[in-house]
């Protein structure tokens, strides 16, 4: 244990600037992913659009986040390209924050959110990929910390926006005072829209006007968030300067070439992993791979498709479930559930930084996925208890928080850092978060709010079964890899003896 601690500390001291920069980039990611829900009604007023029209910006952000994740995985992963992509993406996020107050049409706002979504997707893939390359077999601890910073950014964003949100209708007209939505109605709408605009069927009865005098101060919130985010691209630029990756240093020796990002690799071969242009699509490298190699990619992606889908669905619909029969919670009380869920995820990732140091990824994943199943079953059993809904929400956030970084570290380790696991897993997680929300939303619409818990419970059991299958395929893959290594050694020995 002491040797492990010394090795990890030594690696961190060697790569501390790269690590802290990537952590700060994920703070920017979290800041951008969480601001839309609380501010959507003020943005509706700003663009003078209907609720159905403004919710397209949610889809725009989610869809292009998926596009950005794929783009980040398909392009080359040299240090100069990766850091340039991160610099551009974080600058785009600050730029989008700054120009959102100038978007007075919903189509223009959707384009801005598409840019932000693409930047977020690129950050998601490249930051995960670079930390895996930096630390490889020791990456689990640093990935947990990386994903903690998403939660931190997601907590800061609503806190910045809250003082500037309109308490009453932000579009005023002379004859609308009797029908205007009250502040409690607006709070209910904001909480319902927390799930990327997927709960529209429950909120159509509230009068929201599109013509009149616009009174909103939400612009200040976006400009403050733009300023908060500016140190992040500055940190990326400082790292590029330190590593001599700026154009003015192109002819001088680079520090990253002397101190390779793959220094902890057991094979020491950076060419087989993530380093080449469109390396994941190179058919030459995929030939001769056993079937288990591809199945591991698929299973890892499927697990994150399910678990990130559960996170997105629970965050999106727990409020709708709480204010519906049989619970019928008050709007303000139910509105706390989403914040408690994200705070629990953030606290869980902070705790799992230490647990990743003490325990292996398979153990942590077993604990997490079993915990998710048990919590979901308990929520089904005590579905009439408001108190247990709060307790269960907190427990679910703690249990599910570590699944993404643990699956990523575990799958890359199985594949010996020679596959495309990071790209496949990040893209699968983004797809699951978008698709499962749509699926659960349609089921709730047709079957009622209780179907929300049932869908999440079924998904958690499917996720655990996929994990057991992943462990089984891992054993087969490890055995095939060991047998091929033995056969290679046996064929090389006669040649050595003959020479």
Automatic annotation (TrEMBL):
Gene3D superfamilies: MFS general substrate transporter like domains. Signal peptide: none annotated. The chain crosses the membrane at residues 20-41, 53-74, 81-100, 106-129, 141-161, 220-241, 293-319, 339-357, 364-383, 389-410, 422-444, 450-473. GO terms for cellular component: membrane. Keywords: Membrane, Transmembrane, Transmembrane helix. It is found in: Membrane. The keyword Phosphoprotein does not apply. SUPFAM superfamilies: MFS general substrate transporter. It is a multi-pass membrane protein. Its main location: membrane. The keyword Membrane applies. Belongs to the major facilitator superfamily. This is Major facilitator superfamily domain containing 4Aa. It comes from Seriola lalandi dorsalis.
């Amino acid at each position: 244990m002491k040797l492990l601690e010394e090795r990890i500390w030594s690696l961190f001291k060697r790569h501390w600037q790269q690590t802290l920069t990537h952590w700060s980039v994920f703070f920017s990611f979290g800041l951008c992913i969480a601001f839309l829900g609380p501010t959507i009604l003020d943005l509706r007023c700003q663009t003078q659009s209907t609720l159905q029209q403004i919710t397209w910006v949610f889809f725009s952000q989610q869809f292009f986040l998926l596009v950005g994740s794929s783009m980040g995985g398909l392009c080359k992963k040299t240090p100069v390209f990766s850091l340039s992509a991160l610099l551009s993406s974080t600058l785009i996020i600050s730029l989008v924050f700054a120009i959102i107050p100038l978007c007075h049409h919903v189509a223009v706002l959707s384009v801005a959110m598409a840019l932000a979504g693409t930047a977020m997707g690129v950050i998601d893939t490249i930051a995960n990929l670079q930390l895996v390359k930096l630390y490889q077999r020791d990456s689990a601890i640093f990935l947990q910390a990386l994903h903690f910073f998403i939660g931190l950014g997601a907590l800061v964003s609503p806190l910045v926006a809250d003082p500037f949100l309109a308490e009453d209708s932000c579009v005023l007209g002379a004859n609308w005072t009797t029908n205007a939505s009250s502040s409690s109605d607006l709070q209910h709408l904001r909480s319902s829209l927390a799930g990327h605009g997927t709960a529209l069927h429950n909120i159509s009865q509230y009068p929201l006007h599109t013509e009149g005098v616009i009174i909103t101060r939400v612009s200040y919130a976006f400009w403050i968030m733009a300023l908060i985010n500016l140190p992040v691209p500055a940190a990326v630029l400082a790292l590029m300067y330190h590593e001599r990756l700026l154009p003015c240093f192109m002819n001088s020796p680079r520090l990253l070439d002397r101190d390779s990002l793959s220094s902890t690799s057991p094979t020491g071969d950076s060419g087989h992993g993530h380093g080449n242009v469109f390396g994941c699509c190179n058919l030459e490298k995929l030939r001769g791979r056993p079937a288990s190699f591809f199945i591991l990619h698929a299973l890892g992606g499927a697990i994150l498709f399910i678990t990130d889908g559960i996170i997105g669905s629970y965050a999106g619909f727990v409020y709708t479930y709480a204010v519906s029969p049989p619970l019928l919670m008050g709007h303000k009380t139910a509105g706390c559930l989403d914040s408690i869920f994200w705070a629990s995820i953030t606290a869980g990732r902070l705790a799992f930084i230490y647990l990743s140091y003490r325990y292996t990824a398979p153990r942590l994943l077993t604990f997490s996925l079993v915990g998710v199943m048990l919590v979901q079953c308990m929520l089904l059993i005590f579905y009439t208890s408001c108190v247990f809904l709060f307790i269960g929400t907190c427990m679910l956030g703690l249990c599910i928080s570590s699944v993404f970084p643990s699956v990523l570290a575990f799958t890359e380790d199985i594949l010996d850092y020679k596959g495309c696991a990071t790209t496949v897993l990040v893209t699968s997680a983004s797809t699951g978060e978008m698709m499962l929300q749509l699926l659960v939303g349609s089921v709730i619409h047709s079957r009622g709010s209780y179907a929300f818990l049932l869908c999440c419970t079924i998904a958690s059991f499917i996720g655990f079964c996929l994990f057991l299958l992943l462990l089984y395929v891992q054993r087969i893959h490890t055995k095939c890899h060991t047998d091929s290594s033995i056969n290679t050694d046996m064929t090389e020995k006669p040649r050595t003896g003959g020479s």
